[in-house]
Design a protein that fits this description.
Elements: H1 4-7, H2 22-54, E1 61-64, E2 69-78, E3 82-90, E4 93-98, E5 102-105
Antiparallel strand pairs: 1-2, 1-5, 2-3, 3-4
Length: about 120
């Protein structure tokens, strides 16, 4: 049976003990590797995105987190919501979104025509 060793209960000690610091040190090493491989690049990417959103100018095209494509028309201040971005999404249709709703800023080569 494959799980027989687990069902039999704890095995008697063989007399050789490991260092009590081995497991905590190994956990710290794994966390450090995870931090440098996953978390650090994500923070850099997020910081760069927030800087780009802060430097938005009218005429830039963006895609919201919900998938709406629009051109920045202007900016508004709202007491409840904070800074808002006014987007033109169709010929006579403007919407206001929060800065946190900006998903991606479209490059000039990727721009699409809004009619």
């Amino acid at each position: 049976m494959i799980f027989g060793a687990f069902l039999a209960g704890p095995q008697p000690a063989s007399g050789q003990g490991g260092s009590p610091w081995a497991m905590p040190i190994m956990m710290m090493v794994i966390f450090a590797i995870f931090y440098f491989i996953v978390m650090m690049p994500q923070r850099k990417k997020q910081k760069k995105h927030m800087e780009e959103v802060q430097n938005l100018t009218p005429g830039k095209q963006i895609i919201t987190a919900g998938g709406i494509v629009g051109t920045v028309v202007g900016f508004k201040k709202d007491d409840r919501l904070g800074d808002l971005i006014e987007l033109k999404i169709a010929s006579n249709t403007n919407i206001a979104i929060t800065k946190s709703a900006v998903g991606r800023i479209v490059n000039a080569s990727e721009k699409t025509e809004i009619k």
